[in-house]
């Protein structure tokens, strides 16, 4: 299964994640305690392998702002995490992920109105649109027909529930706070999370 480590703010952690098997690195350009400047994101991205996808997270940004940041940083994929309409998403000229905050099965009903291959399912909104470290009931995914959508599972993922997350058969797991200590990315937790998902090692083996 693919793994995205999100909310990176320094090159050391980003490069460490990439070298240990992360398929994607997320950079938050919206209001968040993990927000990164355009200049810092550009510098970090310049150090990463080409095969690792660089994903920019935006919340209710204008098309012009998104295009400017993508062109300046080298972002590969745009993640829209706000109230963006299907029409707005259609206007974005880059590969795109549309994020949805999920509290119940009813929140899944409108995902097919969005013209995107990838959807990100996050926990309920908190202080910020995403990155609140809150999981939703993953059991509701078992009976929903996602058709051709590829599901990225986010919200509250950590070393304690990653085994359960793998059972959802999502396309990708998106982890942020679950690989942090004291609000900062923890290299040991990043490695343990990636080892578990990528190498199918048991928690007993990697602890």
Automatic annotation (TrEMBL):
It holds the Pfam family PRAI. Pathway: Amino-acid biosynthesis; L-tryptophan biosynthesis; L-tryptophan from chorismate: step 3/5. Signal peptide: none annotated. GO terms for biological process: L-tryptophan biosynthetic process. Residues 3-195 form the N-(5'phosphoribosyl) anthranilate isomerase (PRAI) domain. Its EC number is 5.3.1.24. It is an enzyme of class 5 (isomerase). Keywords: Amino-acid biosynthesis, Aromatic amino acid biosynthesis, Isomerase, Tryptophan biosynthesis. It catalyses: N-(5-phospho-beta-D-ribosyl)anthranilate = 1-(2-carboxyphenylamino)-1-deoxy-D-ribulose 5-phosphate. InterPro entries: Aldolase_TIM, PRAI_dom, RibuloseP-bd_barrel, TrpF_fam. Gene3D superfamilies: Aldolase class I. The keyword Methyltransferase does not apply. One of its GO terms (molecular function) is phosphoribosylanthranilate isomerase activity. The keyword Membrane does not apply. Belongs to the TrpF family. This is N-(5'-phosphoribosyl)anthranilate isomerase. It comes from Niallia endozanthoxylica. The gene is trpF.
């Amino acid at each position: 299964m693919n793994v995205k480590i999100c909310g990176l703010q320094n090159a050391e952690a980003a490069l460490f994640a990439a070298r240990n098997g992360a398929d994607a690195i997320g950079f938050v350009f919206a209001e968040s305690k993990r927000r990164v400047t355009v200049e810092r994101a550009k510098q970090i991205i310049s150090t990463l392998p080409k095969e690792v996808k660089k994903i920019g997270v935006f919340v209710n940004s204008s098309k012009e702002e998104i295009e400017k940041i993508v062109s300046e940083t080298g972002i590969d994929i745009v993640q829209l995490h706000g109230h963006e309409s299907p029409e707005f998403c259609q206007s974005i000229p880059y590969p795109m992920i549309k994020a949805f905050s999920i509290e119940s099965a009813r929140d899944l009903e409108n995902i097919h109105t969005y013209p995107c291959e990838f959807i990100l399912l996050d926990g309920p909104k908190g202080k910020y649109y995403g990155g609140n470290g809150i999981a939703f009931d993953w059991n509701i995914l078992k009976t929903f027909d996602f058709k051709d959508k590829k599901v990225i599972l986010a919200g509250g993922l950590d070393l304690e529930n990653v085994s359960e997350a793998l059972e959802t058969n999502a396309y990708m797991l998106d982890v942020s706070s679950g690989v942090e200590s004291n609000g900062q990315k923890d290299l040991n937790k990043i490695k343990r999370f990636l080892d578990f998902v990528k190498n199918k090692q048991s928690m007993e083996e990697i602890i």
